[in-house]
Amino acid sequence: MNTNVIINYARLKLPLFLLPIFLLVVVVLFLYSQNALCVEGYVQIQKDSFFFINQYLGQYPYLQINLTQLGDALVILSLLSIFFIYASKVWESLLSGSLVSLLLAGLLKKIFAIPRPAAVFSDDSFIIIGKKLTGHNSLPSGHSITVFTVLTVLLFSFMPKSLKSKIAWYLAIIAAGLVLVFTRVGVGAHYPLDVIVGSIVGYISGLAGIFISRKYRLWGWICNKKYCPVFILLFLICCILLTFRIINQNLVLFYLATASLIVSLYKIITIYVKK
């Protein structure tokens, strides 16, 4: 599996960055055409679409609160922990991409300082599922960046060979990503453009993670058996953190993430003992 991932990475070219950059330019031009390159304008042009999407998706609160957890790095990376054993190159890209996404998310949120919906609209005007967020850090959506960073790495790591399969795989990943990121509107945490921009930034972060892992061996040591105890400890800590999440919220996604970590822990310990 790891060999196939490396082969897929070798086929990637830098022009892949042109599409997300073009999409960001389109978003900026759209905002400019609507006189929305300011906080008030940005919020007002999305008011109706935010309420519409929020009211529709908010009818399924348990589904929304579960799916939106996949934008949490602890949860989504725990679900993918098994790739640490069978496709370490995927994890190298995920780690690099996550660092890039963390940097971009923190920087962009501070630059734009857009107030969250709950900081602008009254609580009884829209649906809030889970914790009420009122900060001035709405753009871009950090959950959306995380989701698309991970999905972009998976997209190119396991890209099929035939053209039809490639198209189907690409569309499936993008569709799944959009379903996940729009849960942020459903729970009342973000505006539609927050998640769209976040998705594009996440795509860029995922690509950057792949190219960094391809050119530099920053994380090459993670497949070395002598470092297994480090990841055994790390996965145990993640299990403990997820256990606290289960106690506090009792969501299905937390159980699935914990189960994935336990399986991965068993595999890693087995490998280390056989060293």
TrEMBL record:
InterPro entries tied to this protein: PAP2/HPO, PAP2/HPO_sf
Keywords: Membrane, Transmembrane, Transmembrane helix
All copies of domain Phosphatidic acid phosphatase type 2/haloperoxidase, residue ranges: 93-210
Record field: transmembrane: 12-32, 67-87, 94-114, 141-160, 167-189, 195-214, 226-247, 253-273
Name of the protein in question: Phosphatase PAP2 family protein
